[in-house]
Design goal:
By secondary structure, the protein is mostly helical. It has two domains: about 55 residues, no CATH class; about 110 residues, no CATH class. It is built from eight helices and no strands. The radius of gyration is 20 Å and the shape is globular.
């Protein structure tokens, strides 16, 4: 993957006629931009490995197995969606959050008889829906700043869409749980 990034940086630098120095500066800037997320993914994976090796995940799953075994598929999916919202806020809905939460959520889905793909879809849907309105979403804040739109204006505009999307997500996840 690193080799692909490196080669594509050279290709993009050549196509954009940045020259050697410009390509190098752009590449280093890109590396700096990826350092934070790479650190978070590494940290999340480290926590996951520690929890697995110390059998902490097994203890948590054993305690939670009784809660989810026998629940209806729709109830489990909706509870997973609700639990995913604060988790997405705290650890992010990206790769780091997924690496941290899936070792717990996926086996819980197994106990409840839910396909793992639906658990992952539920996690992704909750995170994606929440990122549309989170003021800590850097892309959202940058886009609003570029458009010169205040966050309060954005919230007033997006709130009806958020409600519609929530209904659509709940319906689609419920259909997925039934099938």
């Amino acid at each position: 993957m690193s080799a692909l990034f490196f080669v594509m940086a050279i290709v993009i630098g050549a196509v954009g006629r940045l020259g050697e120095a410009g390509t190098a500066r752009a590449f280093i800037k890109g590396v700096v931009d990826f350092t934070g997320p790479a650190f978070l993914v590494t940290l999340a994976r480290g926590v996951s490995v520690i929890m697995t090796n110390t059998k902490t995940i097994d203890t948590v799953l054993n305690a939670m197995e009784g809660l989810v075994t026998g629940t209806s598929n729709i109830v489990f999916v909706m509870l997973t969606f609700i639990v995913s919202l604060p988790l997405s806020f705290l650890v992010g809905g990206g790769a780091a959050g997924t690496a941290l939460t899936m070792p717990v959520l996926a086996p819980l889905g197994d106990f409840a008889g839910i396909d793992r793909s639906l658990v992952i879809t539920t996690w992704a849907a909750a995170g994606g829906w929440l990122r549309l309105i989170l003021p800590i979403n850097a892309i959202l804040v940058a886009g609003l700043a570029l458009a010169k739109v205040g966050f309060d204006q954005y919230v007033k505009f997006i709130l009806p869409l958020m409600c519609i999307l929530l209904v659509v997500i709940v319906v689609v996840l419920s259909i997925g749980a039934i099938l």
